[in-house]
Specification:
Number of helices: 18
Largest sheet: 5 strands, parallel
Strand order of the largest sheet: 2-1-3-6-7
Mean pLDDT: 87
Distance between the termini: 76 Å
CATH architecture of the largest domain: 3-Layer(aba) Sandwich
CATH class of the largest domain: Alpha Beta
Strand content: 15-25%
């Protein structure tokens, strides 16, 4: 990573060079705007660290020229005479950060780590965009339908922010998969993703599970335990079936979201919380509020960015793509040599209503894979796994068509 330092003070230049070497970069320093213009062409830096006030020019103008020549270059502006106007001007010129002298190595390390996170995120987003165009996948979400295209667009946008997200959708529609995709595309991707189902834990244990507990705080608490909030620190906490959380605990969750602090069960210390919260429910949140299952004030805290997932029945064109995606995943795990589908098998899958949504489809694909003896999954195998009474008539009629064509060919002879 090439870093150009434009700074007229020799001691500051040398200090910056040493810091950049320690961070694994390749520094090159100059003391004037004229030398900087020459170095842009010859050294071709990826990052510039420029002082605003130079003997023969303005560091911000150098940054503008550098980014006009290559918009992928990043700039860090430094100055010994900070002002709000200077900071605004630097940011308008495309500076990634604005720092006051004297600089400490730790400051520079923080900025470089943030730059590395942003570049990793940009690379990940570009990779996923290319994958989406080629395969219809965004992370582990799959589909080419108009409904899923809208979902993909929303996910790409919301991933850039730290705003809480509330995902709604029927059971099996992929709420946790959507949450994981948001996390993967976010600046927190290198940190933990922790999923917690509020309906799967006894109400008496949920508080301890979420916030942790101190040793001796209740019978059986033989040692301190970190809760899911602490386990997800710096990353994303996914709370599934949020409407199953008890009213008293909802109040405590609301306090954590408002104060950005928590206290373990039986503890007295306030702990800072740095977690992006994504929650989900298979119920209509407004109905849950009316029924007293969800506090209205908590709902507005969670629902900063809503995301509603369609059912599989609402996007039938995605069924063949999903079925093939699951077949490939299963083949990678089991290596039985099942390499594809006979077309009418996919037609049968599209003819079914899928009340269990994507989760049910995956289970059916797995069973069809296991029951297949050849290289392709045959329609008879698929049909045996689906309730015949719920298949659309067109799907079953297709089976007789080849025999009619054969009989007609015989009469022509």
């Amino acid at each position: 990573m090439k870093v150009l330092i434009v700074e007229d003070d020799m001691a500051t230049r040398k200090g910056l060079e040493e810091s950049i070497k320690d961070l694994g970069g390749e520094p090159f320093s100059v003391g004037t705007a004229k030398e900087a213009g020459k170095a842009l062409g010859e050294f071709d830096p990826r990052i510039l660290i420029v002082d605003i006030h130079l003997p023969d020019g303005d560091g911000i103008e150098i940054l503008k020229l550098a980014r006009e020549a290559d918009p992928d270059r990043e700039g860090i502006v430094i100055t010994g005479q900070g002002s709000i106007d200077n900071a605004i001007e630097a940011l308008r010129a495309g500076a990634f950060d604005y720092l006051l002298k004297p600089l400490r190595p730790a400051q520079l390390e923080v900025v470089f780590n943030r730059l590395a996170d942003r570049r990793r995120l940009e690379t990940e987003v570009e990779t996923l965009r290319a994958e989406l165009q080629e395969t219809g996948r965004l992370g582990d979400l799959v589909g080419r339908s108009e409904a899923m295209s809208r979902i993909f667009d929303v996910i790409r946008r919301v991933a850039r922010s730290n705003a809480p997200v509330l995902i709604t959708g029927a059971s099996g529609s992929g709420k946790e998969v959507a949450a994981r995709t948001i996390h993967r595309l976010s600046r927190r991707a290198g940190k933990p993703f922790v999923a917690f189902n509020c309906g799967a834990i006894s109400p008496t244990l949920i508080e301890s599970e979420l916030f942790g507990h101190e040793r001796g705080s209740f019978t059986g608490a033989e040692k301190r335990r970190l809760g899911y909030f602490e386990e997800a620190m710096g990353g994303t906490l996914f709370l599934d079936e949020i409407t199953e959380m008890g009213a008293e605990l909802q109040v405590k969750l609301l306090r954590v979201l408002e104060d950005k602090t928590l206290r373990r069960v039986g503890g007295s210390q306030e702990l800072k919380v740095d977690v992006r919260l994504i929650s989900a429910t298979n119920r209509d949140p407004k109905d849950a509020i009316r029924e007293g299952k969800l506090r209205e004030d908590l709902y507005y805290r969670l629902n900063v960015f809503p995301l509603s997932l369609p059912t599989l029945a609402e996007r039938p064109d995605d069924i063949p793509i999903l079925a093939e995606y699951f077949r490939k995943l299963i083949e990678e795990q089991e290596r039985a040599g099942v390499i594809g589908w006979e077309p009418r098998g996919l037609d049968l899958l599209q003819s079914y209503s899928w009340p269990g949504n994507v989760r049910e489809l995956r289970n059916v694909v797995h069973r069809a894979y296991v029951m297949t003896e050849g290289k392709t999954i045959r329609p008879e195998v698929v049909e045996a796994l689906l309730p015949r009474a719920e298949l659309k008539p067109a799907a079953t009629r297709k089976k007789a068509a080849p025999r009619k064509e054969k009989a007609a060919a015989g009469r022509r002879k």
